[in-house]
Structure formats: structure tokens, C-alpha cells
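sry for the spam today, last one i promise. C-alpha cells for design, 280 residues
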């Protein structure tokens, strides 16, 4: 578990391997967090080049009773290793769909297409993943087209055909798929060809410094051109400056997510922003 530098609290000394003791305490803490309902989802808008909110990404937060808000970088890794990510991930899906149901009833603006949820490999590979998700949607009467699942390239490494089958089943329910952090994992262009993907998210590491590096610009240009040819929507992540936004637009990217537009927000604040006439 790496320190993220922005928390006033860290589970582990970043310089040291976590001890077995520390891991056990964190696992216990995660167990209690589920039991005591300490997890929250925050929402970060995704915008188009007219500054309309076209979607949002749900991001997990842990409101620790003593230590304040803990960010996923400090616990997702351990939760994946311990297997607790399955239960946490199920909570995330349920919370996201319940929230979507509330907003759907209160009214979502025309421009809002979908809510994106991050899915861990272990969670996606559970045999009941598809049924469980479909059941949640049915229960709340939510159209699948409002839900997007963000998966990473690494998930596909060992389980390509299983993953691809699950994706096809969910796509039949209208659910869309984004490939997250594109270009940072064990990428294969084959994934883009062979999987039923809808969205490609360009990782922040490609976005920052785009103006300063013509090599970076060349790579991003190829990614965007390829995505266009394959009819994938491109969303650039971690856009922090107007300069980055304009560089991306020149390369043909028209959807953005990042601090330039907004940090992740608690649900009510996000919904208020969604209702506001102008988002800029
Ligand atoms: P990610 O999926 O790549 O999510 C984007 C991360 O970048 C988020 O960090 C977001 O707050 C941050 N971010 C957004 N805009 C900017 C920006 O302009 N600049 C910078 N520096 N950062 C920006 P967060 O929320 O701390 O999440 C970190 C990672 O934890 C996520 O990366 C994702 O891999 C994982 N994660 C978050 N929520 C969940 C979840 O519900 N389930 C699973 N399995 N993983 C999650
Ligand atoms: Ca993501
Ligand atoms: Ca990402
Ligand atoms: Ca990332």
C-alpha cells in the first residue's frame, strides 16, 4: 500500500513493508467499515467540450470514525489481496445503483449519460457477478444504459474469454464498458479489437505534461485516432489545466474528467451541480 501524501493519516510507513500485524489491523478495520456503514461514494463529473456533465465516476471513500476520510489508494490493494474487495465491491455497486435510482426519480438532465463504477478483477470474476448486477438493476428498475463499468487491462490478462463473455452478457442489458488507465497496464491492442468496449479512458500520466512533450502528444494522438476508428469514446482523466484541455482537444479528445472541472463530491453537492444551469 502506497502512501498518497494527501491523507493526514497513513496505515503504513511508506518506506517500509507493512507488517503482518498492520495488515491484520487494516483487514479488521475494513470488516468493521462494512459492518458499521463507514464507506461512501463520491462523484466526479465527466464533461464534454461544451462543459456539460455527460456522466460521473463513483469513487470510494472510507469515513473512519477516528482518522477521517481515507482514500482508496490506502486500502484497495490490501482489500484485493485479502479478498475483501468482493464484498466491498458489491457494496459499491449497490450504493451506486441506489443512488442512481434516487437521481433517476428526482430527474437527471438530458446530457447525463451514465454513472461509471470501478470494478476489481476479483469482483468481476465471481461466478455470480452478472446475475447479481442484473438483479440489482431489476430491483430498482434502472435501465442498464445508465451504468458503465470501468475495468483495467490487467484484469483481462489471465481470463480473457471469461471476461469477454461476461461483458457480452452485460452489454445485452445495455451496460457499457470503459477500459480504465489505458496504456499503463499490460496493454494489448487486441483488447480494443476483441472486447465489446465503449469507452477508453486515457490515464492521467499521458495527460499531464502533454504540452511539454511531443512524444507524449504523438502517443496520445495515436490512441485517440485508434479509438475513433473503433468507435470508442475517449475520456481523458486527470485534466488539471486549461492548457491540458486545449492540447487534448487539438488531438481530438472531447470528453474530460479532472480537477479542472471538479474534484469528487459528496452526493448532494454533485446532484446540485448537475442541476445547475451552467457547469463552468
Ligand atoms: P481511478 O479509477 O483511475 O480514479 C481516478 C483517480 O484520480 C481518483 O482517485 C480521482 O479522485 C483522481 N483524480 C481525478 N481527477 C484528478 C486530477 O485532475 N488530478 C489528480 N491528481 N487526480 C485526479 P481516488 O478516488 O483516490 O481513487 C484512486 C483509485 O482507487 C482509482 O483510480 C481506482 O483504481 C480505485 N478505486 C476508487 N474507487 C473504487 C471502487 O469503488 N472500487 C474499486 N475496485 N476501486 C476503486
Ligand atoms: Ca476509474
Ligand atoms: Ca483511471
Ligand atoms: Ca488511474
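last one done:
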Amino acid at each position: 500500500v502506497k502512501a498518497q501524501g494527501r491523507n493526514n493519516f497513513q496505515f503504513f510507513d511508506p518506506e517500509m513493508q507493512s507488517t503482518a500485524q498492520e495488515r491484520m489491523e487494516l483487514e479488521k478495520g475494513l470488516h468493521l467499515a462494512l459492518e458499521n456503514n463507514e464507506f461512501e461514494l463520491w462523484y466526479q463529473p465527466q464533461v464534454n467540450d461544451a462543459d456539460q456533465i455527460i456522466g460521473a465516476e463513483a469513487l470510494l471513500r472510507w469515513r473512519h470514525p477516528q482518522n477521517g476520510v481515507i482514500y482508496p489508494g490506502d486500502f484497495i490493494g490490501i482489500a484485493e489481496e485479502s479478498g475483501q474487495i468482493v464484498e466491498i465491491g458489491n457494496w459499491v455497486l449497490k450504493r451506486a445503483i441506489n443512488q442512481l435510482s434516487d437521481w433517476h426519480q428526482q430527474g437527471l438532465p438530458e446530457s447525463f449519460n451514465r454513472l461509471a463504477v470501478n470494478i476489481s478483477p476479483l469482483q468481476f470474476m465471481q461466478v455470480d457477478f452478472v446475475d447479481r448486477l442484473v438483479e440489482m438493476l431489476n430491483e430498482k428498475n434502472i435501465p442498464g444504459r445508465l451504468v458503465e463499468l470501468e475495468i483495467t487491462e490487467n484484469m483481462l490478462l489471465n481470463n480473457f474469454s471469461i471476461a469477454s463473455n461476461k461483458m457480452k452478457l452485460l452489454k445485452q442489458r445495455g451496460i457499457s464498458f470503459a477500459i480504465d488507465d489505458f496504456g499503463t497496464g499490460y496493454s494489448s491492442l487486441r483488447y480494443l479489437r476483441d472486447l465489446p468496449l465503449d469507452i477508453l479512458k486515457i490515464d492521467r500520466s499521458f495527460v499531464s505534461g502533454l504540452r511539454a512533450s511531443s512524444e507524449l502528444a504523438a502517443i496520445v494522438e495515436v490512441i485517440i485516432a485508434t479509438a475513433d476508428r473503433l468507435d470508442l469514446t475517449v475520456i481523458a482523466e486527470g485534466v488539471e489545466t486549461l492548457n491540458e484541455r486545449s492540447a487534448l482537444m487539438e488531438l481530438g479528445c472531447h470528453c474530460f474528467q479532472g480537477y479542472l472541472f471538479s474534484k469528487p463530491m459528496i452526493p448532494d453537492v454533485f446532484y446540485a451541480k448537475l442541476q445547475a444551469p451552467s457547469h463552468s
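Residues 1-9 have pLDDT under 50 and may be disordered. ok im logging off now
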